[in-house]
Amino acid sequence: MMKPENIGRYEVKSELGRGGMATVYKAYDPRFEREVAVKVLPREMLHDPQFRVRFEREAKTVASLEHPAIVPVYDVGEEDGQPYFVMRYMTGGSLSERINAGSLSVLETAKIIERLSSALDEAHIKGIVHRDLKPGNILFDHIGEPYVSDFGIAKIAQAQGAATVTGGGIIGTPAYMSPEQAQGDKVDGRSDIYALGVIVFEMLTGRQPYEADTPMAVVVKHITDPVPHILDVNPNLPADLEHIIERAMAKNRDERYANAREFAIALMAVARGESPTVSPTSTVKTQKLADKTRLSGPAAGATRIAAKPASAKSALPGWLLIGGAGIVLLGFLLVGGYLLVSSGFLAAPAATTTLTAPAPTEAPSATEPVAPVEEPTATETASPTSEPPTPTASPEPVAKGIGGADLLAFVANNEVQVMNLDGSNLRALTNDGVPKSDLQWLPDGKSLVYIAGKNIQLVEAETGRVDVLAAFSSSSLLDAFRISPDAQQVAISFNRKIFIVPFDLDAISQVRSEQGFVNLKGCVSYTAGTSAAMAAREFRWSSDSKSVAWLYSGLVNSRSVDLIRVVDISSCRAETLRLVNEFPAQYFTPSGYGSNPFIPGYDWDGDFLFLLNTYIRNQGWGDLYEYNMEVRKANTINPIGDRCCYRDPLWSPDKRYIFFAFQDVDAGFDAQTQFYYIPYASIGSGVTYEPIPLPEAFYRNTKEAPQPALRPVLP
To answer: What is d(CA 293, CA 286) in angstroms, rounded to the nearest whole number?
Structure first.
């Protein structure tokens, strides 16, 4: 069959893969000027008059998933009687390809599972089970970060089977199918944990735990055979892995890990040479707001069904004891699932979420759909699905330990101030009256570092003791200093030149000149004609410390404007720095940008979302924007009654909250600086926010930038 020229608005370039249940094409989206992957389901599915309803319902549910390790669904549609999904295209390859190249180390395996675990838990808390988790559905981006793809495809296919088979068809891949799924029972998130256990076994050994001549025989082994000893296959592995794999792949799902995070924690402990300490009965709190998702109104929570305990008997299930025709029919369904294509060319944008919620006790079956949620478009941010704020209720002032932070530091009246998140225990740490910039916490959470004049200074949070970390000559220019999230590097703008050097306080304290930074032999040093030659004013790091964003003045249409440039520094060579994105540029024009083309404050979630404020009044206060680097789209979000003006937005350590300063434009010259710390997911829901209490007229200069710094909760 020849490939189509177009599927909807998408221009088909090539076929990526074909299987029993889908065909995947590489395509081009002219609207957003990006390459995508289009997965087309069989035309025959629409012969069932109820399938279209199920398809739309499940598509909305799947599209509601938004997580940095889940491949997003950009769009769904129907073309010439064929339903299709549109997802992001990438060339990072699949886990299957990596396993084929050789088994992975325990540490590499643990890191991959650690990232994927929060993605699975996010889906499970919403009542969504993958049902076809396998190495071919775990994909990597260009920097090697893993993502889960094809959420919901198996559920949709299973729903189609339910219309033609009495009671419910079974779709999945035999090599990774849990016993309860193979027997046609209802499944919950623990079925995915079983599959994850199989995948880990394969990652560490290069072999699947159960092998047989036919798919049916493999399914029977999952139901009847004990879990193979991983040390028999690879005796060089740590002994503790034996118990971890056996627990993840327990025949009785009640004996498995309660959620994917528990599994990941145990695996990482072994990778670090520690003993797993997760209790078999430990649970974690359910997340109240879906991370990095927003809506225009409340959304329904996922439907939960009480689970019946799985039988521990290793007996052949009833459906294997029926007549030959039934086995043939089931075999056909399994082969269909086995051939379900996984191209290995899809990836997700990074949005930041860390879920610690247990799997739901029971997910809806093929005939009991999960509760639908509002469907976001490809250019909108998705909707939260659990307990959004009630629009008529004002939340309590934020308290200690919210958003992964326990202390707020900021600059007021040219002094470093610190207080609890509810406004209590406000105190000044400095008293020199010198203007300060680039305020941030050191990794140990005990001290803050900032720029004062041409010095880098440090102040202890408990004692207020101030030390000069580095002092430079009167001819030097020191514009920016920002430590990486992994505390291994620091980005510095010195003499209008960029240096990225090891974060070594003792070594940095010895630097007195530009050559001193060169001598540190860091990842990037100033090189004429490269991005490192720019006069950056403010840095932000990606979560993985492999990319850096910097604010600088550039030329657009022969006019000097503020721009934010995002650069991949993983090559560690100034000549080969890769430009990831630059904005606003051609992507959007912020309010006031025409007369005041400045970006006074911005922050990065470390993945794909930026917050920034424009310059409208008072030397740097303006509208609050969010910019999605993945779709290259920006929105004004102005959370306080849709009014101006805002300054210095900041993501919380866990990226679920945002901090910002606000001055009500309607108050004119009498506007006071207020602080807000709110759930990001609640923006746009109509909720009324209360500011963090500050003393009246606390800011003597209302033009001053607060430069907030949130301290992550210390372990």
So the answer is: 16
DSSP 175: G
Domain(s) labelled CATH 1.10.510.10 in the chain stretch across 6-338
What CATH number belongs to 6-338? Answer: 1.10.510.10
pTM of structure? 0.49
Scanning the structure block, which residue is given the tokens 């372990």?
A: 715
Residues of the chain with CATH 2.40.128.660: 405-437+515-712
Question: Is the predicted pLDDT of residue 67 greater than 80, yes or no?
Answer: yes
Q: How confident is the model at residue 99 (pLDDT cuts 50, 70, 90)?
A: very high
Q: Is the pLDDT of residue 493 over 70?
A: yes
Q: How many helices (H) and strands (E) does the chain have?
A: 13, 30
Q: Which of 574, 546, 565, 538 is nearest to 488 (CA)?
A: 546
**pLDDT given for residue 497 in this prediction:** 85
- In the structure encoding, which two tokens stand for residue 534, read together? 């720019």
The tokens describing 365, both together, are 């079956």
522: CB partners within 8 A, 6+ apart: 489, 499, 500, 501, 502
- 20-33 pLDDT tens trace: 567 889 999 998 88
Point out the residues that are catalytic. Answer: 132
DSSP 519: H
* CB atoms closer than 10 angstroms to residue 269: 17
In DSSP notation, 192-251 reads HHHHHHHHHHHHHHSS-S---SSHHHHHHHHHHSPPPPHHHH-TTS-THHHHHHHHHT-S
The CATH number of domain 405-437+515-712 is 2.40.128.660: yes
